[in-house]
Amino acid sequence: MAIRRKRLALATGLFLAGVLTLVFTLIRWTPQPSTDWVIVGLFAFASAALSFRSVEVNDRMYASSSAMVVATAATYFAIHTEQTATGVVSFDAVTIVVLIAAAGPFDIVDFRRRRVFQPASNFGQLILSAFAAGLLADLMLDGRSAHDPSDFVLVAAVGALVALVYNLVNLSLVRLGVRIAYGRRNILPWSGLWLLFGSQLVMGLVGGMLGATFEFADNESLLVLMLAVYVIGNTVFTSYSQVRVAHESTLRGFVKTLETRDLYTRGHTERVAYFSQLIGQELGFSGTQLEHMRWASLVHDMGKLAIPIELMQKQGKLSDDEYRRLRTATHKVDDLLSEVDFLRPMIEVCSGAHPRLSGEDFGQIGHTHTRNPSLEQRVLAVADAFDAMTSVRGYRMAMSQQAAYDALRRDETALYDAEVVDALERSLVAVGETYGPPHLLVTGEEPAGVRHG
Amino acid sequence: MGEWRSIARWVWALSALIPVGMVGVVVALLRPGDDLAWVGGVALAFTLAAMLVVPSAGRTSFSGGYLVVSAIPFISEPDTGPIFSPREMVVALAAGLALTWIIRAARGDEQSSVLTGFLKRASSYGAFLAAFALVSGALPATFLPNWRDAMLFTTSAAAGFVGEMVTSAVLRYGLSGLGPRLYLALDTARDLNVYVSLVASGALFGIAFGAIGWWALPLAALPYGFAHGAFRRYVDARRTYTQMMRSLARIPEVAGHTDPGHAGRTAELAVALAVELGLRPRDVDTVEYAALLHDIGRISLNEPSVLRMGFTDGDIAKWGSEIIGETSYLREVGDVVLRQHEPHRSPGVESNIDVPVAAKIVKVCSAFDESTSELGFSPLEAMEKLHRGSVYDYDPDIVATLRHVLDRRGALARAVPSS
Asked: Which pTM was predicted?
């Protein structure tokens, strides 16, 4: 297992880097006897509690709020001074922040599941990020402790910078790790990154303000109250994500039922979802757009659930009247689903992307509902038709991948956009996958049983 | 019934005097030396905040007024101590409550909701401030000074919450009916997080104000804004999830396998029964989803192989629970759907105790709705059928509860021919 070895090397490297940084900061540190360890403990607890309770900011984009705790601790200790018998004592933010970060990666869940890689590399990542963040706070704020409003603004701004640096270092290490271990570059939908950094900047700002307030007011109750509000927000956000996951898996359950009924369409929905994701990524869709595509692919065949029994059992060709009934039944399901506020835009995508009904040939394309299909509709239409062509159906053989591309490009309706087909072709080359039967690789070969309407 | 209505009319008429009384309180307690800018400012801030209704997952909604009320006692100046004396707090709150009342009445809100809102809030704010005054008097100043505010906050917040909970329970159900009140109490407890984030944000502002002045506003507002956004998204997601369940539940009826509207009506009745029986809020949700989806297995009836082989009620329940079981979030619902066709007792067995209550509820409600809508029975005839079937099929306790619920709605009375 090459990946396993790479991951091991990566985890060891990060872990060692973390330990070295920790040892380095501890050696050059002169501990102050007046350090309030209760406060340090409180910060460490908060950081550990928040670092693994990340919330989904956007589709597939997770943000943890430990940066806020780091910003609070860094700014507080950078400006904190205490009057003792020997004179004014100031504190080192960097050491304390590194110590706080060191407590972060040890999650009970990891211990229970005996996971080693993840905590070890997280340990290194968090310590390196915290070191950079703490150093920044020390450099920019050392010696400032006056209680005047201009300093308050400065401390808050430094808090935002600290959070930014903390996240940048952390994210770069994650990207580096993914590139080393898996050889992939694309781990996040980059179009949404400003959202991530925007939210982290605000969190850092709040953290800096809290650090300054805490120093000025010297009141632990502030920390407790603010954490209470914050943790509640975080928890509610987590339950929100759970409901969203439940949404999707409920629909998936229905799709599975749908597909067990028809041997030939088994896995069709999942593949259509996969192809439309590939095309969407290739065309530079945002996280929200990609999510829309996934949902639209999931529901695009639900109409089949309502096809009346006698039509399902009918052998041979359907009469015009029966065809109309078939259509009505599937449209009724679309109408039902579009009563759900959240699904309405997705249903609109599907109903514009459905030129045909199951059991018909792709050759009859052209019966579109929409004259000017949206980009999402064209993507879904191509993904749907491509999978239908490259898989075996009851009445015909599967087509080769190349023949499917050609057939889609030959079509002149507005639905099958050459640009979208190109994007599909490029992305399938990029992931190195081929669909359709392997023995049919001759370009442009017509599979048996295809009619052109 | 008519007598009760005329009493209610009197109550509403008299309740219009409440804002007048509040203004009276303000006039009576205001002293010439008071800082009118602070008192008026708080009254205005309170009125504005009270217009903010905070969404919560349960069936309670909290007023944004908590943000202001919890801040007032903590606001202080570094040199001169607390800004508000207890008397000034009462003045500011009374002015704010009067203003809120006037605005809500002018906006055309229903008078009963204005009155119940006032009673709930006034009792809760009163409890909050009273607990604060009591504890801050009793707590020695030298005892853990850095944690003093946290202790004051915890006790006052608890008192305010109990105040709101008790008042709303009494307003909704009066002093009888233990089960529904227990349900309400638990349901409110589920919204504790909304309440805590409101009062904690207010107190955070109050405490920080002494140290950093008006910078305390963004400090408290940003985390609260995050929590508020999270609540809204959560409530929205829950609502669309229920919408989706309702839509999916209607697929079998679109395909012609069940009577139109059967799933929705069964769910409505089942939720009423579950609340009446005092089930926990989580379990009420399970009952609702299970009732909606209890016939979902029928979408498998489109499979030609199924129709060839034949099927039983048990098969439909099994297919349904398989579909639902794909979602780990709905595992309990799947179990209920699997069991809902079973009788509560079998011949020769003393008592079949392991059928979940939720499954028994769904069975009874589904049978009732089938009798009244599909078979054309009157509600009384349907009840008669359920009573006859309660030796084995229907749990007599659940049937009795159904009777209570229908009786209260007047559904059984209407069915009696008027002779």
From this structure: 0.77
